[in-house]
Amino acid sequence: MSPEILKAAFADNLNFAVGRPAEIATPEDWYQAIAFSVRDRIMHRWVRQFEKRNAPDVRQVAYLSAEFLPGPHLGNSLLNLGITDNARKALAGQDLDLYIGLEEEPGLGNGGLGRLAACYLDSLATLCYPATGYGIRYEFGIFDQSIKDGWQVEVTDKWLLPGNIWEIKRPNFAQVVKIGGHTETYTDEHGAFRVRWIPDRVVVGVPYDTPIVGYLSDSCVLLRLWSAEAAQSFDFADFNRGDYYGAVEEKVFSENISKVLYPNDEQLEGKRLRLEQQYFFVACSIKDMIRLCLRRGSTLERFHEMFCVQLNDTHPAIAVAELMRQLVDKYAMPWERAWDITRRTFSYTNHTLMPEALEKWPLPLFGSVLPRHLEIIYEINRRFLDEVRTRFPGDEGKIARLSIIDESGEKYVRMANLAMVGSHTVNGVAALHSELVKTQLFPDFHDLDPKRFQNVTNGVTPRRFLGLSNPGLTRLIDGRIGDSWLSNLDRLRELEAFAGDVGFQQDWMRVKLENKTRLARIIRDRTGVVVDPSSLFDIQVKRIHEYKRQHLNVLHIITLYQRIKHDPRLQITPRTFLFGGKAAPGYFMAKLIIKLINSVAETVNQDPAVRDLIKVVFLPDYNVKHAQNIYPAADLSEQISTAGKEASGTGNMKLSLNGALTIGTLDGANVEIREEVGAENFFLFGLTCEQAARLRAGGYNPGDYCHGDPELRGVIELIDSGLFSHGDRDLFRPITAHLLERDDYLLMADYRPYVNCQQEVDHAYRDRHHWTRMSILNVARMGKFSSDRAVREYADNIWKLKPFAPEA
Ligand code: 9GP
């Protein structure tokens, strides 16, 4: 598409869609005009493919996810359409990057899980798979984080306030969803015994569609997000009686369902609204698929041939009972047939072993929101447990563990068990995690049917996370191996040949320095802290959680601080420690860790004795947009979770893809990253998963590690002395006391190996040529971690899905 055509499109949209004369148009107006022009081109592709996508023989994947974190659309869509350069030319002297930077991002996810879903949509579109991502159009996404006096403050994310150009409302495809009430039995006209659900209330789900265009593929997939509306905006009976407030109450009540994204890592037990949210989007999505299936002239007997449905974690697991309800209650299908279709439709991805993240709902709550589903779940469970009993007679323990209903105390519905029973396949998200899913999480299900278990190691899109966010490195790579690697990441291997090339290494270092200089400016502008771009950028960006061990990183920083204070002539590699990440609003320890990071930063950054050898920065409001500035500038990627706790991680992949070396434990996908890049190009430390388990089993005493290591003791004492808290000795006591007394995440045991490993990093960074060689090899060997590979594995091994040719 030529610059001239784009120029005309921008002018037209400024005129007709935005309604502003060019002479007085603001940057926001220009952003909108460009965004409309780009959307037009995506829509054109979308409409052109309509027939192909909806042909009766085309099988589709529906990716059900309560979270999608796509990031800003404009820059990525320009890249995927291959028109960024021409858009720049069309703007003749205006700053395209400024306009791109104005876009509010849809923060419709907490972190890795939602971002993974967005990466998969990018790859599904790029590889021309027919797909729809179904989710919730939260009015308020993940909160914006600001830092006040070192503490996290949550601010409502009003992402829709400036309007959202990328979505199209489709009221004609709205669905009605029932909630609450009771069930009753009746006999139908054929004399058959049937059940119907009489709800307390109904809400309407209105879909908003965002087509996502693939990279140079001309193909699109759809992100269809449901927004809750009242069945009637006003109760006219109330209104006519003069009760205006009563009349709008129902509207407010209904719209609450899609109002806000729940932050994870909170105790969500008993959050009725969250259960309603989950059911709401699942019910709308299943009904939408049924509508499409019937519209294509198929019968529901073939539902599982037309749709494969991926359950992204347990959040959409209620879909199993909902499809059964639709088939049995509404379409009068015999139970056995409906169950067969259901089992062939669903597959389930597990993303966590953390017990608090495995959802279970108190039975009374569940029954009051979804009375009919509870009956259906009882029936599924009864039939399932009968099978188990015949295979393992008398093994009541096994039966209790496999049951969808937890009856060990207060009764719960276990959503993971429902997802397991109702799916043909379950997968973990990294090789180690998938093993742990078999052996620790679901050993009884594994005994029952080992063939159902698979692994699909996560992947990330190289388009957004290298092509878009690191143009300098992209150009450098293009210059050596051409540009086809962005859609065939394995081709990065060809860079290995240049790893020792001094000229290439210098270019590589130059690009990294430019990226670090840019980030240093952002850090200064946003926090006031001045950092040296030539220092080692040591980066830990991710949700704040004790298992991710940001506080282990802090213990290392304090160790260095202590060493510098003890020896004023000490020489170490200058470092900038950068943290970013949100803590769940109700997670006290995580919020205290943020305060600790900021407090240590305040003390260390201002102490002249430190001689600027170390700087500590907490960059507020870590999100996709900020991540895109951070990854390209990283020298060292901190992936230091307690082994066995991080299911996969994806930040580890994005950082390594941008040339950072990893310091990490053998956890999640770190294991495979290390295998790929080579042990000599990875800084490994810490307990393995097995060692951690043995240590715990043998009676772990964290205090012993502290008392046996004077340096560690000094660090803990320094925190407790009040040095970082203006004399307040108690402020951080919950952290230090937990470390000394319980230390669930084994920081004390891993402290010394971590600090020693960091010393190796310090030495390695001094040999810049060798470091750069390692950095090049990291990038060259990241091909496996493309989301294209992951999506192909899902399509081939789980979904049995074929790409379609988008062009006629
Ligand atoms: O914690 C995992 C993270 O390790 C993984 O990379 C991500 C995507 O698979 O999912 C996260 N899990 C959740 O957010 C909740 O289960």
TrEMBL record:
SUPFAM superfamilies per record: UDP-Glycosyltransferase/glycogen phosphorylase
NCBIfam families: P_ylase
Reactions this protein catalyses: [(1->4)-alpha-D-glucosyl](n) + phosphate = [(1->4)-alpha-D-glucosyl](n-1) + alpha-D-glucose 1-phosphate
Keywords, alphabetical: Carbohydrate metabolism, Glycosyltransferase, Pyridoxal phosphate, Transferase
Domain of life: Bacteria
PANTHER family the UniProt entry points to: GLYCOGEN PHOSPHORYLASE, GLYCOGEN PHOSPHORYLASE, LIVER FORM
High-level lineage: Bacteria, Pseudomonadati, Pseudomonadota, Gammaproteobacteria, Methylococcales
Pfam families (UniProt xref): Phosphorylase (PF00343)
Top EC group: transferase
InterPro entries reported for this sequence: Glycg_phsphrylas (IPR011833), Glyco_trans_35 (IPR000811), Pyridoxal_P_attach_site (IPR035090)
Names of the cofactor(s): pyridoxal 5'-phosphate
Descriptive protein name: Alpha-1,4 glucan phosphorylase
